[in-house]
Structures are given as C-alpha cells and as structure tokens.
Model the fold of this input.
Amino acid sequence: MKLLITGGKGMLGSTLQREFADCEVVVADLPECDITDPAGFERFLAAARPDAVIHCAAMTAVDRCETETELAWRLNAFGTGVVAAACRRQNVRLVAISTDYVFAGDLDRPYHEFDVPGARTVYGITKFAGEEQVRRFCPEHLICRISWLYGGNGPSFVHTMLKLATSGPEVLKVVADQIGNPTSTNAVAHHLRLLLERPELNGTFHLTCEGEASWYEFACEIFRQAGVERKVEPCTTAEFPRPAPRPANSRLEKRMLRGCGLPPMPDWHDALAEFMREYQVAAR
Done:
C-alpha cells in the first residue's frame, strides 16, 4: 500500500509515518504541497499516485480560528474540499481526520457517529464544513473524528503537564468540568491501519480511546504515571475563559467500530502508559 499523508509533519502525521513504516509513504506538507492550491495539489497527487490519502492537514489552533476566521475556512473547509475532489478524480481512497468540536458538547452521554453535529466554535464549524466537502466530493471516504490527542513531540496537554511537573505555580489548577476521552496518536494510527485494511468500509468513525476523564483527572493520572508528586486542584471552566468555548462533553462513542466488527480502541490509561514508556526512553 502506498499512502500520501497531508500535514505529515504534524503530531499525528509523524506517528502515522512510523505506523506505516512498512509501506511507501509520501509526506505532503508545506511548502512543497499546498492543499488550498487546487491545481498544485492535483499535480502533487498525480505524481505520487497513492492508494489512499490520510488528510491530517488543518488549522487546529482553536482560539486562533476565532480571530483568523478566513484562514480557518480556507484550510479546514476549502482545502479539505480540494483534497476530496482530487481524490475522487484520481480514484484514490480518502481518510479525513476530524474532531469532537463538530458537536455542541451539551449532551449528557457520549456522542455517536449518527448524532447531528452542532458546532459552537469557528474551528468546529469549519471542520464540519470540511466533513461535508468530503461527503459531497469523494464517495470512497472515511471520516475519523478524534479528540484530546497527544503523542510524539507534541504539542499536547500531556507535554504541557510534564513540563509543569517541576515548574510553574506551587498549586496547579486544572479544569474539572469538561470530560472527554484522552487519546494517543499511537492508538489512532493503529486503528487507521485496521480501517484501511477493510476497503469495503466507508463513512464516519469515532477513534478515541475507551474510558473517560476530566482534564483534572487526566492531569492527575499523568503525574501518577510519571512518578511525580504534584499538587493539583480542580477548577471550573469559568475560571479560565478562552476565546473559543470548550465543549463540556467531548466523549465520543465508537458505534461504527463495533458495528463493523473491529476491535475496540484501547483504554486511555493503557494508551497513556504506552506513551509514557516511549517518552521516558526518548528523554534518556
């Protein structure tokens, strides 16, 4: 299998390169490849001739999207449409990475793939617009929603907490009224391989680790697994206002994985433990 990964230099893209080290992988990233240049991307895709494209490229800085809205629309919606249309014309399977932010975050249960999105941020609105471009322009597709992602060299919440393990205020306050599924890039990459091995599958899949936590609980577990004694106190979202509102509920149910008979995602504690082992080895 030959893969083209847009945004291949990012956190998830770097993990995907390792996961698919036994395949031929083409990294499509700036400045060599611009997803907002239709003719340029078409040429790049034609020259690469992959069996599938994993589309990771996006504007993911949630707060920045609120102020640079035109750029967010250009990258997350228009750029995704460019990739989707090119894949359809060249008969290439497309895997598009999306986000929990497409949902409002106000349900009292995890969101499944058939729930109606209702994004409340520019980031979420533009990412859902990108999903719709994929559905419209490229019938042979997988849309994979992820959330609370960490891995590799970051940046991520895990990396931030590890940096604060020996620095920062004496008492670390972490939000406790937002819940989600902490998810490693390793877990996502492994399940993307499983999906790509099933050419008959199409549609939207949620790929987050099993189990749930608040950011406060996530932080406590990071310090516990790192063997660090750190005083952490829970706080509310209102105590740390941000330009883009964060979903109170980012939990994603994996209904499509179960329906297709695919194995479950790993528990988030186990995925974090695997990452911590890799992180500690790399730090030596």
